[in-house]
Amino acid sequence: MIDASSPTCDGAQCPHEPAGPGSYSARLPLVPACSACSSAAQTANHVALALDQLGVAEMSCIAGLGGDVKPLVKLAKSGRAVVALDGCARASSRHALARHGVTPDHDVQLQQVGVRTRLHVSFERAEANRIVASVSAPIGHLVAPCGVDSGAASGRVGRRRAESVRGASTT
Question: Kindly report the CA angle at 89 between 44 and 63, in degrees rounded to 5?
């Protein structure tokens, strides 16, 4: 039996937390990802979806953030850890966050880990899966502890300087 007064969580859905605010998903880092038309952008989108489905991060809508959709802007500015995931050097995710004064905790640019930008072709699933594996570990530490607000867990009022997983192992 889990004692709710001293919760322990091994990275899975905490069994004594209700869904909604304060739930496990609310403690995950947000991943607004590029999802434009190139193969690299689609790779970034696929990686963000996979991180969300694996419970490593919560995908967020970069188009909505860029379009000033109030609930998405509020979520991005909530103090949760943020991982900007961009397919190319244009860094649309990072720029959309910056428009709202949010500096990502991690800035992942896929061209830095060998992803090529190609137009009029689909992304390569094997390459995307390799990126999921290489990005999962470096951002895993951004999950706030069980029972703690993610903004409070980080001990920051604003965003700390971005750390980079560029050059993270891709094997």
Answer: 50
